[in-house]
Design brief:
Distance between the termini: 39 Å
Largest sheet: 4 strands, parallel
Helix content: 40-55%
Shape: globular
Oligomer: single chain
Order of helices and strands: HHEHEHHEHHHEH
Number of helices: 9
Strand order of the largest sheet: 1-2-3-4
Radius of gyration: 19 Å
Strand content: 5-15%
Number of strands: 4
Structural class: alpha/beta
């Protein structure tokens, strides 16, 4: 991945740091320290660690629920704690009055990656719904507390993005066409469209955008209803007590 990112700009220096466990702040701190040592500073942060799988509450163990909370919520908080001093410094160096282009560019910005299922609720996704609601709340708190120091904190909530592991975990291959029909834009999104939203929120164009959630889903969340959109018909599948199958990362556990 580091090699791919390096192609975005000539002579870019990209660090490929593997095996970082966001559940452990010490692991994150080591990565942060290396970035600052080798790159000089940290101006932008993306907190995007996530864990997901389909499972009804009746088959979702406490440990499985906790694992998602640890990755999504605790992982996001640990990312904030490890990078915050550097983001505050960056914000001070990249102040803007909103009228003129910042001479040193932008900085002091953090972006969280969330989702949309908790807006209306979704079967088989109680664990992720709770976790992503927590991520959204965390971003709001960062915006309120660190905004006076010049930082901005925002959220991108992607919808169905084709060719990603996330979709492999949520939709059976045989149900993809049917799932696409439920997206008002008539298709799945592309990774580039999430990247474009990220560039916007980190750019001079978003200097006054703070504490917001940018949904990039082609309008998909507005058609959620009670259908998880993955071929598991509501409420028939829940009443059958069957285990989730046909997708990656399924969980089966006793109460």
């Amino acid at each position: 991945m580091a090699k791919d990112i390096a192609t975005a700009r000539q002579d870019a220096k990209v660090l490929g740091i593997g095996s970082v466990d966001v559940r452990k702040v010490e692991s994150l701190q080591e990565a942060v320290d290396r970035c600052v040592k080798e790159l000089g500073s940290i101006d932008f942060v993306i907190a995007g660690a996530a864990g997901n799988f389909l499972a009804p509450i009746t088959q979702l163990s406490t440990n499985a629920f906790k694992s998602v909370m640890d990755i999504d919520v605790l992982g996001s908080y640990n990312t904030v704690k490890a990078t915050l001093p550097h983001l505050i410094d960056s914000a001070a160096k990249h102040k803007t009055d909103g009228k003129t282009t910042p001479p040193a560019g932008t900085g002091g910005r953090i972006l969280f990656i969330s989702a949309t299922m908790h807006y209306s609720g979704a079967p088989l996704q109680s664990h992720v719904s709770v976790a992503k609601a927590g991520v959204d709340a965390l971003s709001s708190s960062v915006a309120i507390e660190l905004g006076p120091r010049g930082m901005t904190s925002n959220v991108i909530a992607p919808g169905p993005i084709g060719g990603t592991e996330g979709m492999d975990r949520l939709v059976r291959s045989a149900d993809i066409k049917a799932a696409m029909k439920k997206v008002p834009s008539g298709r799945y999104g592309h990774v580039k469209e999430i990247a474009d939203a990220t560039v916007y929120l980190f750019s001079d164009a978003a200097n006054f955008v703070n504490g917001e959630v940018l949904v990039v889903d082609g309008g998909a969340w507005r058609t959620h209803g009670a259908d998880p959109g993955a071929g598991f018909q509501y409420p028939d599948f829940l009443l059958s007590d069957e285990a989730v199958s046909g997708v990656k990362g399924g969980k089966k556990a006793k109460l």
